[in-house]
Write a structure and sequence with these properties.
The chain has about 80 residues and is mainly α. The protein is about 60% helix and about 0% strand.
């Protein structure tokens, strides 16, 4: 694997994304058809994936991290 996806979303951010994903999916399913429904399904899928993984590519691109403590990889012991 070439890149490690380090978490950059806090708990509150992940909960909001999950709720947005569920809401977008339901809105598209109940009220929309055609292109707008597909667009909303794609947004819902992206929000769901980022909420479950805790990683947002746009956050990484702009250097945003909403975690309270950034995850720092362990350093190897000195010999």
């Amino acid at each position: 694997m070439c890149c490690k996806l380090q978490k950059n979303e806090g708990t509150g951010d992940r909960i909001i994304r999950f709720l947005v994903a569920v809401g977008a999916f339901l809105w598209a399913f109940l009220f929309l058809t055609g292109t707008w429904a597909i667009v909303l399904y794609v947004i819902a899928i992206i929000a769901l994936i980022t909420s479950l993984t805790g990683f947002c590519g746009l956050y990484k691109l702009f250097g945003i991290n909403t975690l309270k403590k950034p995850i720092i990889p362990p350093t190897p012991p000195l010999k």
